[in-house]
Amino acid sequence: MSKPVKGSDAAPAGKSPTIVVAGGGTAGHIEPALALADAVMRLRPDATVVALGTARGLETKLVPARGYPLELIPPVPMPRKATPELLRLPLKVRDSVKRTREVLERVGADVVVGFGGYVALPAYLAARGRVPIVVHEANKSPGLANKVGARFAKRVAVATPGTPLPGAEVVGIPLRRSITTLDRAALRAEAREFFGLDPDAPTLLVFGGSQGAQSINSAVSGAAKELAEAGIGVLHAHGPKNTLVVQEFPDRPAYIPVPYLERMDLAYAAADVVVCRSGAMTAAEVSAVGLPAFFVPLPHGNGEQAVNAQPAVDAGSAYIIPDGELTPAKIAELVVPLVVDADRVAKMSAAAVGLGHREADEVLARIVLEVAGV
Predict the structure, then answer these.
(1) Whole-prediction pTM value?
(2) Domains 18-175+358-372 and 181-351 share a fold
């Protein structure tokens, strides 16, 4: 017999809480959810955290690796144009909400925490009127799911001031403790050995989000000769669906291509400078570890990635290179001189201190436990 789902009333004092997090699809949705889960478990070791996801998202890999149970529901992708798929959307939503509601009842959810995306929307609709909801929005321009969820959420947490959601409370973006407590200098030797990098060469980290970015891949790999001649080592995550072939230069620091970075903490520790996209999660992590950055905002969407990068640019810890201007020549012109300039790197790293909200994970966890009433 399934355990009855909790209503919006507070659960009995001392009860072990059950938290359901909904943040599937990309690492930008999943990682904040898992950072929150970790914080909840630190504050309430008796808690149960269950993640919602779909069979096609990165959550099938990331969630079990962090030790949390994953419940799969049908995805509800939102078509951007008027297509036959749009006509089938109500049926897909109804099916996904029904399945999600079954999960909430079975696990005995005390609160649902959504981080946006196509997993969060059915979670909000399934929980409405049955389980209290907390919404977290990482971007200044909220997506459709969080706009819907915020209308009937108990609490709405956001990463940046000015986010247009009702009742928004600024808490920052929950980050893993392995990131917020990272001592890059202490881990540098271990990190470079782990990836097979030159232990002494100035090192450039390159990645384009969990799926990679072709423009970044082409520009940086196209400047491999200039990077090698400057004595720069490179760790380049090109994305699991992409390939990257880079010419080797004898007696020069290695250029290491990898599909995906399982250990971002070691990747950050190995690096002196990073070239990357500026999704909300990435921008927050790069600033938190004090890594000078060249942000290349995604050229699509509503311009939110440029907004994400701006605080670091204003602080003097980062530059923005528009995607349309990113070429091997631009890497040689802008990136190479910075990576080999230790004084500039140190000043930019120091400028990142104080950016962001390092305690966002526990601040959000306390909000969630309060809403759960346990």
Answers:
(1) 0.85
(2) yes
pLDDT in tens, 253-266: 999 999 989 899 99
pLDDT band at residue 149 under the 50/70/90 scheme: very high
Residue 324 is classified by DSSP as G
> What DSSP character marks residue 209?
S
- Please, where are the H alpha helices in the chain? 27-43, 59-65, 84-87, 89-107, 120-127, 144-150, 177-180, 184-195, 214-222, 224-229, 264-270, 280-288, 304-315, 328-330, 336-339, 342-351, 360-372
Residues 6+ apart with CB under 8 A from 147: 165
- Give CA–CA dist 119/20, Å, rounded: 12
DSSP 3-state percent helix, strand, coil across the chain (nearest 5): 45, 15, 45
For the chain, domain boundaries: 18-175+358-372, 181-351
Q: What sign does the dihedral 170-172-177-180 (CA atoms) show? A: negative
Residue type, 300: H
Give 227's contacts (C-beta < 8 A, 6+ positions apart): 204, 220, 234, 255, 331, 336
* pLDDT tens-digit readout, 116-127: 988 999 999 999
CATH number of 181-351: 3.40.50.2000
* Cα–Cα distance for residue pair 135/154, rounded to 1 Å: 8
CATH fourth-level superfamily of 18-175+358-372: Glycogen Phosphorylase B; (3.40.50.2000)
Token pair recorded at residue 102: 């079954």
Cβ-contact 268, 292 below 8 angstroms: no
Q: List Cα–Cα distances, 163 to 27, 125, 160, 248, 371, in angstroms.
A: 21, 22, 6, 46, 21
Task: State how far the alpha carbon of 325 is from the alpha carbons of 169, 309, 322, 329, in Å.
Answer: 36, 17, 5, 10
Region of 271 (left: φ > 0; alpha: ψ -120 to 50; beta: rest) is beta
